[in-house]
């Protein structure tokens, strides 16, 4: 079930947080409301890490990651990098990359199997993405928009794209990503990736989201029947495996 | 761009717009900038906020005009285009939105309400353009406009008057002027027209109307005028003065067919034109003809009024002559379109046939022996004119005994007596001035008018600027044309206009055939 919240009166939740199946990053806010909203849903299931990147709080736009790894831009300080490496689980590889387009969250939309990349990303970066995140990378645009990370919200079960995407584009993307896609709005706006933070069993969106939009989100990401325990149990199994 | 693609053979994927759910109501709709369906958008945003929905306008029931403050009154019909433009102009703030369409919604005229439905377009949210229509109600209040209220207070109120005078003993000029004015519609804006002794008064509501009337007069007769004004009221605070203007217009007393003895200065100024001259035509110039030399001169209004001479003998004093013998013309001339021939004739007065005169005349081209002619009897006339006396004393051989002016058609007219004319004329709506003890004799007026009509028949150039209408009662008589070889001159039927008559059953067109001139 999707939750509605705000970060310091701003409805763009996806900009101030990064949610994956293995961990969650949140920005440091003056009040604890944002953090406690995440905690109430995810406490004990996955680690929730409070951080900045390069002193900037809009971490969702700056970094990109999935359960296998996390990519941070070159503006990240060493301290922050170390903090991330300490706080996140060991199998999550944290990599700092040197890329001209440093807002990686805006440029890359990914789930655990496949990623969409900004068409102008460097070849090297694409290789690193494939390597660190363990995904297949496709350079694509969504409804003629090149910032794929902002205009697409993706999880392993489904995705939402910019509402002006044509039917043919939608079919093409769906084939590439192997997940059902829908063109819709979040927070009544076109920028869907920035407005929602989603993983396989839960989603957080801005408080401007209408009930209709919430129902669309629930149906496409299949959140109604999702339980965290089944997925994390699988993860725990692999964890225990490595210990042993 | 698709044409270019077809040229290069590039394959362009067809893009179908999908449908998204409206974020408020969930109904599927094509995506738009506001991400809401039209109804939800309309419920969210009202673009007509802050626009005027009801307003008061003033209407003058007398003249059917609407007030545009501060002072202009605009004439408009009920539910017309002008009224729509006026109504929209009265709305304030309408420049914030774009006006797409405006139309009237029917209201009962007695309700004193006008309803206009406006469709406006404005931009809302993030670039979505919304169109909305809303009604505006106008309350109509009755309020007499200034000119109507002034008219109601005193219907005879005039602001400018033109007093037209000619100091001669006949009214021929005024009959002719009346026809000219009717033809050119010059007095259409006159509030009142009054006929007085020796003239006509015209009353106008506006000084500029009076001015344009005087300009018209100046083009058709030689006039001299002066303007005077009288203060009616005075607003001290705004220094506005209301005046009544009076124009005193004098028409020159020289008429057609007058005999004039020119003062020596004028005669020498015109190249020693023989002081005895006949006036042949009066329009904005006076044309005078010397009957002995067949020389012609033109005097315009300014030249005339500088010397201001009067005629010695006028058409009242014309005497009938019998023409016995006409000799061959010794000279011919064409002056101002008219042909004249100088020849010697033997004539005698009708009253005294025994006394024969042998005189020179300029009418040699139309006179034949046995004709009758009208002329001035200088031999026995007692002329009260200084110039004439001076000339009589100065000249050696004495004055000519008679000067013939025109041919007389009385005999031929006798045969047609009692039969109606082929044409009729219209009249100006004039009031008779009873109050000042006018000596107007109705029979005299009839005779004068009859003479004027005869004049029109005889002179085609007089008819040039006048409209004559077909007489409905006149029937062509078959016998008249066969018996006499030369009938009295009449107006040819091609020059007559048929009156425009609009009746329920039939409609006669206005068939104005080409005029001769």
Automatic annotation (TrEMBL), chain A:
Coiled coil: none annotated. GO terms for biological process: cytosolic ribosome assembly; ribosomal large subunit biogenesis. It holds the Pfam family eIF-6. Its main location: cytoplasm. HAMAP family: eIF_6. Binds to the 60S ribosomal subunit and prevents its association with the 40S ribosomal subunit to form the 80S initiation complex in the cytoplasm. May also be involved in ribosome biogenesis. Monomer. Associates with the 60S ribosomal subunit. This is Eukaryotic translation initiation factor 6. It comes from Brassica carinata. The gene is EIF6.
UniProtKB/TrEMBL annotation, chain B:
The keyword Nucleus applies. One of its GO terms (molecular function) is ribosomal large subunit binding. It is found in: Cytoplasm; Nucleus. The keyword Nucleus applies. Residues 254-297 form the 60S ribosomal export protein NMD3 SH3 domain. Its main location: cytoplasm. One of its GO terms (biological process) is protein transport. Residues 473-494 are annotated as: Disordered. Residues 318-407 form the 60S ribosomal export protein NMD3 OB-fold domain. Keywords: Cytoplasm, Nucleus, Protein transport, Transport. It comes from the Eukaryota. InterPro entries: Nmd3 (IPR039768), Nmd3_N (IPR007064), NMD_SH3 (IPR048899), OB_NMD3 (IPR048898). It holds the Pfam family OB_NMD3. Residues 22-251 form the Nmd3 N-terminal domain. GO terms for cellular component: cytoplasm; nucleus. Acts as an adapter for the XPO1/CRM1-mediated export of the 60S ribosomal subunit. Belongs to the NMD3 family. This is 60S ribosomal export protein NMD3.
């Amino acid at each position: 079930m999707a939750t509605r919240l705000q970060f310091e009166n701003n409805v763009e939740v996806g900009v101030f947080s990064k949610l994956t199946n293995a961990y969650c990053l949140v920005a440091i806010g003056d009040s604890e409301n944002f953090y406690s909203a995440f905690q109430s849903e995810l406490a004990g299931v996955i680690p929730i890490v409070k951080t900045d990147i390069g002193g900037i709080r809009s971490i969702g736009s700056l970094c990109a990651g999935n359960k296998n790894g996390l990519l941070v831009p070159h503006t990240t300080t060493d301290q922050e990098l170390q903090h991330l490496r300490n706080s996140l689980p060991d199998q999550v590889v944290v990599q700092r990359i040197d890329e001209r387009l440093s807002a990686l969250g805006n440029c890359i939309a990914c789930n655990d199997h496949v990623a969409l990349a900004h068409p102008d990303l460097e070849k090297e970066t694409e290789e690193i993405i494939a390597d660190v995140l363990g995904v297949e990378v496709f350079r694509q645009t969504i409804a003629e928009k090149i910032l794929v990370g902002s205009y697409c919200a993706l999880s392993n079960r489904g995705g939402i794209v910019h509402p002006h995407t044509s039917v043919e584009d939608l079919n093409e993307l769906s084939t590439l990503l192997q997940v059902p896609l829908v063109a819709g709005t979040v927070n009544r706006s076109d920028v869907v990736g920035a407005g929602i933070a989603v993983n396989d069993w839960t989603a957080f969106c801005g408080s401007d989201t209408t009930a209709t939009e919430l129902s669309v989100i629930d149906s496409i990401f299949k959140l109604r029947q999702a339980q965290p325990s089944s997925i994390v149990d699988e993860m725990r199994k692999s964890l225990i495996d490595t210990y042993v | 761009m698709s044409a270019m693609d077809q040229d290069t053979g590039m394959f362009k994927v067809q893009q179908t717009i999908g449908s998204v759910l409206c974020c408020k109501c969930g109904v599927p709709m094509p995506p738009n900038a506001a991400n809401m369906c039209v109804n939800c958008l309309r419920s969210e945003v009202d673009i007509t906020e802050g626009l005027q929905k009801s307003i008061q306008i003033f209407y003058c029931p007398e003249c059917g005009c609407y007030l545009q403050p501060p002072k202009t009154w605009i004439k408009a019909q009920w539910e017309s285009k002008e009224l729509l433009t006026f109504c929209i102009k009265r709305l304030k703030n309408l420049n914030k939105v774009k006006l797409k369409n405006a139309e009237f919604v029917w209201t009962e005229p007695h309700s004193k309400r006008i309803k206009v439905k406006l469709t406006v377009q404005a931009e809302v949210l993030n670039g979505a353009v919304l169109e909305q229509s809303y009604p505006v109600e106008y309350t109509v209040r009755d309020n007499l406009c200034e000119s109507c209220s002034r008219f109601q207070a005193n219907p005879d109120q005039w602001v400018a008057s033109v007093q037209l005078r000619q100091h001669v003993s006949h009214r021929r000029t005024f009959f002719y002027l009346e026809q000219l004015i009717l033809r050119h519609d010059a007095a259409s804006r006159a509030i009142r027209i009054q006929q007085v002794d020796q003239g006509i008064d015209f009353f106008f509501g506006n000084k500029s109307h009076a001015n344009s009337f005087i300009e018209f007069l100046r083009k058709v007769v030689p006039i001299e005028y002066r303007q005077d004004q009288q203060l009616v009221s005075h607003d001290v605070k705004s220094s506005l003065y209301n005046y009544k203007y009076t124009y005193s217009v004098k028409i020159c007393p020289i008429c057609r067919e007058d005999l004039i003895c020119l003062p020596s200065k004028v005669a020498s100024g015109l190249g020693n034109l023989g002081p005895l001259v006949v006036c042949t035509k009066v329009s904005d110039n006076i044309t005078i003809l010397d009957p002995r030399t067949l020389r012609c001169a033109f005097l315009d209004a300014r030249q005339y009024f500088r010397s201001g001479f009067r005629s010695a003998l006028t058409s009242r004093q014309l005497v009938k002559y019998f023409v016995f013998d006409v000799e061959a013309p010794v000279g011919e001339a064409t002056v101002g379109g008219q042909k004249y021939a100088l020849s010697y004739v033997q004539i005698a007065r009708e009253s005294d046939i025994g006394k024969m005169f042998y005189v020179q005349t300029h009418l040699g081209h139309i006179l034949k022996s046995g004709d009758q002619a009208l002329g001035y009897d200088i031999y026995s006339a007692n002329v009260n004119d200084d110039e004439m006396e001076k000339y009589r004393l100065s000249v050696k051989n004495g004055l000519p005994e008679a000067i013939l002016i025109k041919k007389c058609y009385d005999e031929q007219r006798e045969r047609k007596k009692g039969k109606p004319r082929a044409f009729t004329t219209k009249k100006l709506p004039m009031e008779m001035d009873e109050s000042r003890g006018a000596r107007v004799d109705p029979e005299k007026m009839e005779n004068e008018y009859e003479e004027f009509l005869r004049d029109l028949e005889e002179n085609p150039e007089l008819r040039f600027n006048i409209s004559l209408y077909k007489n409905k009662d006149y029937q062509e008589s078959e016998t008249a044309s066969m018996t006499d070889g030369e009938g009295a001159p009449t107006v040819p039927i091609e020059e007559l206009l048929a009156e425009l008559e609009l009746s329920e059953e039939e409609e006669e067109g206005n068939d104005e055939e080409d005029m001769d001139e």
